[in-house]
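Fresh eyes needed here. I'd like your take on this protein's tokenised backbone:
***
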Amino acid sequence: MLIRRKETPRYQWLAVLGVALFFFALVWEGLRDITKIVWLVIGALSGILIMLSVVKSLSFRLGEWSRELRATRSELRRTKEEKEAIQRQFEDVIEGLETPLFICDSHGTILNANRAAKEAFAFKEPKGHTLLDVTLSHDILHATTNAGTREKPYKIEINIPAPSDHVYHVLSWVSESEPKRIFIAMTDLTPMRRLEKIRSDFVANASHELRTPMASIRSMAETILDNPDLPQETKERYLQNIISEVDRLTNLADDLLVLSYAESRPIKKSEVNFSELVREVVSKTERQIQEKGLKLFFEAPESLMVEGEAEQLVQVVSNLLSNAVRYTLEGSITVRVYPSDNEVVLEVKDTGIGISSEHLPRIFERFYRVDRARSRETGGTGLGLSIVRHIVESHGGKVEVESELNVGSTFRVRLPMKKPVGAA
């Protein structure tokens, strides 16, 4: 163990030096003026002691100030770290929002924008640009200049045509703290507006589809009632037409129920041998195809498994086959089932009347008909392909069509293949 030598305080050395000077002065002056020298030495020693006391006090104060400064610096560093952590958490929150959000200064220059805002306007780095540069919308700029308070934000519904047509509900408000910041939050109303339009169109189309056969039934029934002397042949023709219109109404009601049933409840999935399912539907439709004088070609492996609801998948195959039979006047219908890249593909190809290219984007819409007169003649409701698309997409698949007018059509349904147990 080391023993540290105790150091002699500096002022003691100064006292010793003073005493030495005192004796030197005595010798040097020859003891001529002892009183003067004594008072001189005493004054010097007193001054030295006072200075030492002041220095010691200042040293103590400086030590306290140094400790306070270190504590303050530590507190400032901790506060800065907490502020940075809060800032990172805030940025993480706004980045995770699906709602586009902009933070701007009072001049409309963007200070921050979240991921959803960048994606919505296809702008890689909005920071530093004006809101008008990024959104190309004077309506959003108007929302900035009219921003309300946090308690009462300014609200406006706007349409953004680019980069894609969207409808947004915009909220804008100003921060209470300085410097003033303008916050702009945008809620995408496009899916809601699209659903509203689909619902409105559906109601209008359904009403029209129902009114037409009902008006026809009423007209023919009134004719028979008001003219009891009508020839029997005419009565029979009218009655036959009434039965046909009632059948149309029944088919329409059935398709509406199928579509409503498919949309209103979750799928009850199970393992389904899709090859066998298609084979059974084709077998039931074979007689109808033969009666129309068409050739049928069918190709499928023994087993291709998918996961889904068998009843709905039967509806898909039946609707596609019915369409092929309905719109093929001569030639053949080919049905194939085959695997392709972890998918099971159903292909229904016909040599029928085909569909012109301008109609292809809309044929899966509800009640859309390429030729309304022909569709009514053949008993189509305009809902079959809409039902097919909804069921296929709800099963995680997709439906495709290729068609050429007066040449024929090919519909393909792609469904995820059920992997064997234990497969990677």
